[in-house]
Design a protein that fits this description.
Order of helices and strands: HEEEEEEEEEHEEE
Shape: globular
Structural class: alpha+beta
Radius of gyration: 18 Å
Helix content: 10-25%
Strand content: over 45%
Number of helices: 2
């Protein structure tokens, strides 16, 4: 009975930590001003400097909001007021320098500076807007998406 209890305890511990292991950290909030939130797994979280950002997060800024995020490959994204940025995909292997980032700017403004993964694989970073998909092959760019309803 002792062995069965031990196996059950190990199983429960693994089950509780599995969601954390699957949600790898993509980056960290370096700057935050005004109203900024992250929608993650059905929860709306207020953003603070140092907060970790994960794949599938939806970052939203209010009329007075702005946020700067540095990713694990040293890419940087900065969203201005009234922005909605969805981090669809993020993976980076520090040993090889390879990875992939796909984000969607649904509304607002975004400034981007590419990091290590673009140096290794120029096609690895993509930013989508309602009207275009940009493959980041250079080092910096700025994009603005007006209200998609117009």
């Amino acid at each position: 009975m002792h062995a069965a209890f031990s196996r059950a305890l190990v199983f429960i511990c693994l089950a509780l930590t599995l969601p954390l292991a699957l949600a790898a950290d993509a980056g960290r909030v370096k700057t935050s001003k005004g109203s900024v939130t992250i929608d993650r797994a059905g929860q709306r979280l207020p953003v603070s400097v140092g907060m970790l950002v994960q794949e599938k997060d939806v970052v939203s800024t209010g009329a007075d909001g702005a946020v700067g995020i540095t990713f694990t490959d040293n890419s940087m994204l900065s969203a201005g007021p009234n922005s909605v940025l969805i981090l669809d995909k993020y993976a980076f292997d520090a040993a090889s320098g390879k990875g992939a980032m796909e984000a969607n700017l649904a509304r607002g403004t975004l400034a981007a500076v590419s990091g290590k993964m673009v140096k290794t694989s120029p096609e690895s970073m993509k930013i989508r807007t309602p009207a275009a998909i940009m493959g980041v092959r250079g080092t910096e760019f700025v994009v603005k998406v007006d209200d998609p309803g117009r």
